[in-house]
Amino acid sequence: MLWPLALCAVTGTMLALPLLPAILEWRRKTDAAPLRIYRKDEGDVRHFARTFRQFVRENMGEALRQATADGEPRGGTVGASLRYHVVGRSARPEWTAGEVALKRTDRMLLSPASLRLPRHWVFKGDLYCEGAINGGEGAIYRAILAAGDIHLAESSTVLRWLHTDGSLFVAPNSTLYGRASVEQQVVLGSNCGFHRLHSPRIVIGAEPMRTATPMELLEARPGPRSRWLVRGDVELPPGTCYDGDVVASGDIWIGEGTRITGSVKSNRHLRIARGCVLQGAVVAAEDLRVGPDCRVNGPAVAEGSLEAESGAVFGFPEKLTSVTAPRITVAAGAVIHGTLWARESGRTA
Amino acid sequence: MLPLMLFTLYAIVLVISVYTLRHYAFSLNRLLGRQRHPYVDIDTAEWPTATVLIPAHNEEAVIACAIEALLDVDYPPEKLQIMPVNDRSTDRTREIVDQYAARYPGRITPFHRTGGKPGKAAAIKDATESLASEVLIIFDADYIPAHGLVKQLVAPFFDPEVGAVMGRVVPLNAGTNLLTRMLDLERSGGYQVDQQARMNMRLVPQFGGTTGALRRAAVESIGGWHDDVLAEDTDITYRLLLNGWKTVYQNRSECYEEVPETWPVRMRQITRWAKGHNQVFFRYALPLLRERRTGLLERIDGLFLLGVYIVPCVLLLGWLLCIALFYMGAYALAAGALALFAAVSYSSLGNFAVFFEIGTAVHLDGNRSRIQLLPFAFLNFLASVIAISQAVVQQLRGAWHAQQLQWDKTERFRRTG
Question: Which of A137, A337, B296, B330 is most buried, taking the most CB atoms under 10 A from its CB?
Answer without folding.
Answer: A337
